[in-house]
Amino acid sequence: MSTSTPVNGPAQWERLAERTLVSTRVLDVRGVLFRHPRREIEREFVVVAAPDWCNVIALTPDGRLVLVRQFRYGIDAFSLEIPGGVIDSGEDPVVAGLRELREETGFVGSTARLLATVHPNPAIQNNRCHLVLVENAIRSSAQEWDHDEEIEVITAPVDEVLAWAREGKITHSLVVCGLMHFESLWRARAGAHV
């Protein structure tokens, strides 16, 4: 396989048209027609159109992370994750993260900020996942699940959760990615206190 780059670099394909192939309550599957500007070829690609998501790293005052364990239909098994969900249209990602944290776990925090934004799978998806860091998270209310949710809330020390991600106990790729972003911040803080 050649790793050389064309003289002018890779070309940005031109979007010509799109059509909805399948529409569901959580996403649309679209056929999107693109044209390559130099080769003059046209091809339809499948794009999964979904709303943006947020995932929440919730850190308690005693250095624990808030996790959720829930059944996931896609893998027909339970998954250990950080809280998160769909961002409503026009909703700020940090506001959405705080809402999802409260609804799924009953936890709230004193400070919250955007830690990172990633593309879940840019090869076929058009959405983003925003990672929100919530600090001084404490349980303040009962959970407010959606009608098809049942969530077990777990807290564990940061280093233990990071080990679970490395060891494969946590397998959700966006959660592992979020923990990677958080780990560098966590290690920098730990180094500052040595």
Helix and strand layout, with pairings?
Blueprint (H helix, E strand, L loop, with lengths): L13 E10 L4 E8 L6 E8 L3 E7 L4 E9 L4 E5 L2 E3 L6 H13 L1 E2 L2 E8 L10 E7 L2 E2 L12 E6 H10 L5 H20 L2
Parallel strand pairs: 4-10
Antiparallel strand pairs: 1-2, 2-3, 4-7, 5-6, 5-12, 8-11, 9-10
Helix pairs in contact: 2-3
Topology-level CATH name of the largest domain:
Nucleoside Triphosphate Pyrophosphohydrolase
Overall mean pLDDT score? 93
Shape: globular
Run of helices and strands: EEEEEEEHEEEEEHH
Task: Pick out the low-confidence regions.
Answer: none
**The top level CATH class name of the largest domain:** Alpha Beta
Structural write-up:
The chain is of the alpha+beta class and 194 residues long. The protein folds into two domains: 14-49, no CATH class; 53-192, Nucleoside Triphosphate Pyrophosphohydrolase (Alpha-Beta Complex), CATH 3.90.79. 22% of the residues lie in helices and 39% in strands. It is built from three helices and twelve strands; from the N terminus they run E-E-E-E-E-E-E-H-E-E-E-E-E-H-H. The strands form four sheets. The protein has a four-stranded mixed β-sheet, sandwiched between helices. A three-stranded antiparallel β-sheet has the order 1-2-3, with no helix packed on it. A three-stranded antiparallel β-sheet has the order 6-5-12. A hairpin with a 4-residue loop joins strand 1 and strand 2 (28-35). Helix 2 crosses helix 3. The protein starts with 13 loop residues before the first strand and ends with a helix.
